[in-house]
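Progress report, Aim 2. The chain analyzed during this reporting quarter is listed below.
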Amino acid sequence: MECTTCCVVGGGPAGMMLGLLLARAGVEVTVLEKHGDFLRDFRGDTVHPSTLRLLDELGLGERFARLPARKLREMRMRIDGTTVVAGDLRRIPGRHKYIAMVPQWDFLDLLAGAAAQEPSFTLRMRTEVTGLRTDEDGRVTGVHCTDPDGTPGELAADLTVACDGRHSPVREAAGLRPDFFDVPIDVWQVRVPAPRDDTKSGRVFMSIRDGQVAATMDRGDYYQTSYLIKKGTDGELRAHGIGWFRERLGGLLGWDRAAMEAIRSWDDVKLLEVTMGRLPRWYRDGLLCIGDAAHIMSPVGGVGVNLAVQDAVAAARLLAGPLRRGEVGVRDLERVQKRRRLPMAVTQKQQLGEHEMLLKPALDGTLRGDRLPVPLRMLRRVPALRTVTGYLGGVGVRPEHAPEFARR
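Predicted structure tokens for the chain:
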């Protein structure tokens, strides 16, 4: 049976960052990723200023800067023709005054390449976790898994960290149950070629009109686009036919017919069933959950990746020493949750507020450009408030710095 000091389940942003940092601390760490590569559509592709600063501290800033990226300096909404700048990053503190929009697979390849230079790091692709190992006292002692050819095996570990996302099988196997919030939305996700006559590249982040809401992310030759629908109405709306959707999306965003024809069928429109919740306790003896495995975020604001990365940094700083000494315990895991509880709670409160103030009335058709809610009216009247919201969205509460042992 194979052994490691720390088994990280999931090769997303949290898992790869945690693996890199622990390896730089000299901890033997093995990251298990069930897919054969990082190429997945509709993953969070936003890298926030606090994560960009972290990459600089890790000596990876120059390599990241060579990746294909778009820079978002303002978060804009158009509501019935009225423009609202919801956040302005151009005056926030620090070197990086923008959100970098980078394909997540490129970001993960960068982290994996840096981690591979550390002798104590192992990345095992196409390795799926099927259950947890436990001892007679119920302590988690590693995982059951299958290797790339489907052969079952085990990996023993002093600590297992679940970084396997909002539907975390590891969280489920550990018997940890999130408390869920009610959310009013689901999301259709689709890629749309950038229209030939588009003159507003990267400027419109969200458009709201006539009971419709769509958010766009400028990716150069295409827009990664999210079209919001009322919770649970996917089947009912798809019955209208794909032509109905093309017409509505194109009309909302002012895109030409040629761009809309690229959406060939409903197979091109992926459903994200939005859930939002958090674990009352992120851990049990021998196991820790971070990122979406610990707190399931709404896609609103695209903050999930940044929050997960910050979780990983805090976990690495607090756990590297106990892991090196071979004495990581429940109190160490509790310290991670205590450190990250406030940023998680503040961010979820912001998202729930946006659901109620903005998205629910927008989909009900009651949000109008000439009757904006008070917070949006204040953002239009007081430009300094846009910097505050830009800071909260781009940097967040309690941003984490790279531990000294990981800096290069």
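The longest strand covers residues 152-162. The mean pLDDT is 92. These observations will guide the mutagenesis work planned for the next reporting period.
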